[in-house]
Amino acid sequence: MTLKIIGVVILGMILGLFIPETYYGMTDHMLNIGLCFLLFFVGVDIGKNKDIFKNIKRSGPLFILIPMGVAAGSILGSIILGFALGYPINESGAIGAGFAWYSLSSIIIAPYSSELSVLSFLTNLIREILAIMIIPFVAKHIGFAEAIAPGGATAMDTTLPIVSKNTNAETAILSFTTGLILSMLVPILVPFILNLGIL
Amino acid sequence: MSSIFLYLLLLIVGGFLSYRGVVPRKLFDKLEHIQLICLFILLFAMGLRIGMDDRVINAFLKLGIHATLFALVSIFFSILTVWLFRKTLLKLLTKKEVQS
After folding, report:
1. Boundaries of domain holding B89
2. Shortest distance, CA B24 to any CA of chain A (angstroms)
3. What is the pLDDT of residue A199?
4. CB contact, 8 Å: B91 with chain A?
5. What ipTM did this prediction achieve?
6. Do B45 and A117 touch (CB under 8 A)?
7. Is there a domain that residue A117 lies in?
8. CB spacing of B70 vs A78 below 8 angstroms
9. With contacts defined as CB-CB under 8 Å, which chain A residues touch B14?
10. Where are the transmembrane segments (chain A) (predicted)?
């Protein structure tokens, strides 16, 4: 799947090299309309899970503490690094708010800046790959709850099997709810943080 | 800023309709497929924009190095804050629950 996603982006990039820049504005409409459809269907996908409230109840306070910690840590860490590398706070914060959901976060950023969109895509793609490698180590040496953190929004799908394999059933449920909350936060936090620079 | 509310609204409406069973079950089977088509169209559009922008193409190596650093630092800080929250806030919250 990841290879297909990268393939589609590369195909677009190669074609883009031969398309005049006058068509750049057209892609704005394409992105906005497509994103609205995608988010509606993401909502439908989340809502079809009828056990969602049961899972939340079982998780206790950690249900909210883990996603809060992941969100705060990712954004704060990106802002600190961004400061050192010379990025404005709103741009580096928005990159951190992608929470490893590389496809959606980069698409949301695309109308703002292509350069930042690429950075967001690569950052969150690398984060997902690193998360897969790091989770077993974190689960063994730091803690089960902390093992959910590297995956961010992917804790509910791509990295869930790895968390589940290296922790226990309770942590797997927490991983799912954390991924769910972070996935809902990405389309809200990324444009919100980006807009902080415009205000 | 209005786009945030639109995105949130679409997520909530989609989730509410689906949870309430208003969305036909047939659509659930095709959901993954529909999302994938939307995603691929969007990624293709994003790729087009990248290709059209000379500055991005020229800065690809620099962006790759920065992206690796951003990924490493955001992972490190997210683990650190979850650990801190678990050690401080969770203890506080569970203490309050026991007292009440």
Report:
1. 59-100
2. 11
3. 47
4. no
5. 0.83
6. no
7. yes
8. yes
9. 39-47
10. 5-24, 59-87, 99-122, 129-153, 173-194
